Amino acid sequence: MKRYLIVGGVAGGAGVAARLRRLDESAEIIIFERGQHISFANCGLPYYAGGVIENREALFVMTPEKFKASLNVTAKVRHEVTAITPASKTVTVKNLDTGAECTESYDTLILSPGASPIKPPIPGINDDAIYTLRSVSDIDAIKQKIDNPATKRVAVIGGGFIGLEMAENLHRRGMDVSIIEAVDQVMNVIDYDMAAIVQENIRSKGVGLYLKDGVKAFERRSASLAVCLQSGKEVVCDAVLLSIGVRPDTQLAKDCNIELAQNGAIKVNEYFETSQKDIYAIGDAISFKSPLLGTDTTIPLAGPANKQARICADNIVYGNKKTYCGTIGTSIARIFDYTAAATGLGEKALDRAGLPYKQVVTHAAHHASYYPHASMLSIKILYNPENGRLWGAQAVGVEGVDKRIDVLAAYIKKNGTISDLAEFEHAYAPPFDSAKDPVNMLGFIAENDRDGLTTLISWRDIPRYAEQGAFFLDVRTPEEFSCGALPGAVNIPHTALRSRLNEVPKDRPVVINCGMGLRGYIAERILRQNGYKHTVNLSGGFMTYNAVHNELAHLS
User: Fold this and answer.
1) How many helices (H) and strands (E) does the chain have?
2) 443 near 523, Cβ under 8 Å?
3) pLDDT confidence of residue 43
4) Most buried one in 73, 95, 128, 172, CB count within 10 A?
5) CA end-to-end span of the chain, whole Å?
6) 3-state secondary structure of 555
7) Facing residues of 376 across strands?
8) Is 80 exceeded by the pLDDT of residue 540?
9) Residue among 136, 165, 152, 154 at smallest CA distance from 35
């Protein structure tokens, strides 16, 4: 009879235990979890704080009692594995309630310790009103604080997924919420032009948004807490949620000489084996090869952890036969009126890797525009101009974001190209989609650029063209133009362009924009077929440019 010991529960540990049992009925399986709960929906914690999930018990995916009854798995909560001795294949376990210690042997050990919230040494950071969110115990403490009528103002430090989800849920409860982020945008996994749309909506809700302004100190002011920023500004609040990221929780692995990656995560091979024999690792604490970059990466998401658990268990029981191809980091969050999602590589990651890329941004209705309640959807792809292979994608909108990001993630994971997007076949009826899905449009636009029918530029290229003395041509209607335009732009509607070509110079580059990109493309085709050789079209049109520059104005 095999004896499998698992360190850590939740997605990875609980998942691997369940799969091991389904494959090996005779094995002894024990999970040691130092927290109070063996398996819970940690992604649901912000929604419990906001009252969307009313029943606390709904957060528990599995209890020790259910594990035992259903799967004959022993789950020991409040038990911490304090040491691993690979030579004897034993672990030291401490009962955190009694202090008693014991030694347990294993045939195979699986590490799923997860990640811990980062808590930097900022003065005042140990104040009782400062919280982090990782477990049910954490959310219990947070909820007790925010349920107190005296708690009216909350500062969220960090503009990542958890921070923004918590900000939205606290705002829903009627609290005065401020978001503080050290870099120049929220949601660093998406590019600035997409984040600008999200930030505009956050500001419209009356939420304080402090960007590019880190925390210098926390100072107690009687019943209140002051968050002192590097700029000299202060945000006075009743509670602080610290959500500035996580780090792999790998001290246990380090102490038994398991090889770690540069970022401190546990190095595993394609079978999830660590450097120590018969010790595997999965979940938020591991480092694996990125399928896009080929470099070590760590992606702390529940979806990959569950898939890793399944493959790892198969390899333990049947021998190392199944390999893990890695994850491209597909993620999604609802933030006030919008949903924002990303998959694969963004501009920052591509720039760091020195990889060539082009981008396409499009704005389109999430279903047929003539069908009631169509809402705007903004989507962006980044791809390799040398072969058309997709690098990454992002989407922001009220509806339809999840559908498109999942399609794009599937193509990216399978080395899909812009031509695959152009040929993407989807189910069409007016309540659900348009005859040409926005994913198709991304492919069409990218193919047009590849085939020389258009030359796309991004909002970042505008200053460079201005320095070159380019002619800026806005082909929207006069009514649209009057509501805002690029500096120095001349308005000639695309419907009048053929009769007004004499107003467009041929001896200068011509930068064309419309509202979202389509009319700009039509205008570009008119110009090129009338002898204009240096024309470019602004990807995403004035809608993208305006969102970005409205946000940049807040930083200046």
Assistant:
1) 16, 33
2) no
3) 87
4) 73
5) 67
6) helix
7) 365
8) yes
9) 136
Task: Report d(CA 309, CA 302) in Å as an integer.
Answer: 11
* Paired strand residues for 425: none
- Active-site option among 43, 237, 325, 483: 43
- Say what the pLDDT of residue 301 is: 86
Buried b (16+ CB within 10 A) or exposed e, 435-458: eebbbbbbbbbbbbbbeeebebbb
Give 43's Cβ-side CA count (13 Å radius): 12
The side-by-side arrangement of strands in the sheet containing 176-181 is 130-131, 239-242, 153-157, 176-181, 208-211
Residue 556: per-residue pLDDT? 77
Number of residues assigned to the chain: 556
Does residue 43 have an active-site annotation?
yes
Residue 352 vs residues 247, 292, 334, 356, 391: alpha-carbon distances, Å = 21, 13, 28, 11, 14
Query: How does the average pLDDT of the chain come out, rounded?
Result: 95
Mean pLDDT, range 277-288, rounded to an integer: 96
Angstrom CA distances, 232 to 97, 159, 177, 214, 393, stand at: 45, 20, 19, 10, 37
Question: What pTM was computed for the model?
Answer: 0.93
Q: Which residues pair with 180 in a beta bridge?
A: 157, 210
Q: What is the pLDDT of residues 332-389, one digit of tens each?
A: 999 999 999 999 999 999 999 999 999 999 999 999 999 999 999 999 999 999 999 9
For CA atoms 289, 293, 296, 297, the dihedral sign is negative
- d(CA 509, CA 470) in angstroms, rounded, equals 5
Residue 93: pLDDT over 90? yes
Give the span between the Cα atoms of 265 and 284, in whole angstroms. 8
Over the range 503-527, which residues count as b (16 or more CB within 10 Å of their CB) and which as e?
A: ebeeeebbbbbbbbbbbbbbbbbbb
Whole-number CA gyration radius for the chain: 26
pLDDT for position 60:
85
Q: Measure the CA–CA gap between 240 and 128, rounded to whole angstroms.
A: 9
Give one DSSP letter per residue of 262-304, joined into a string.
TTSPEE--TT-B-SSTTEEE-GGGEEEE-TTT-SEE----HHH
The whole-number pLDDT of residue 495 equals 97
Query: What's the CA gap between 490 and 470, in Å, rounded?
Result: 11
Amino acid, single-letter form, for residue 8: G
pLDDT digits (tens, 9 = 90+) for 392-438: 999 999 999 999 999 999 999 999 999 999 999 999 999 999 999 99
The token duo for 299 is 């992606």
Q: What is the mean pLDDT of residues 122-128?
A: 96
Q: CB neighbours of 34 closer than 8 A, spacing ≥ 6?
A: 78, 79, 80, 81, 96
CA distance 16 to 108: 12
**Two structure tokens written together for 137:** 């115990």
Handedness of CA 465, 471, 476, 481 (dihedral sign): positive
Please give the C-alpha separations between residue 89 and each of 20, 37, 109, in angstroms, as whole numbers: 19, 26, 8
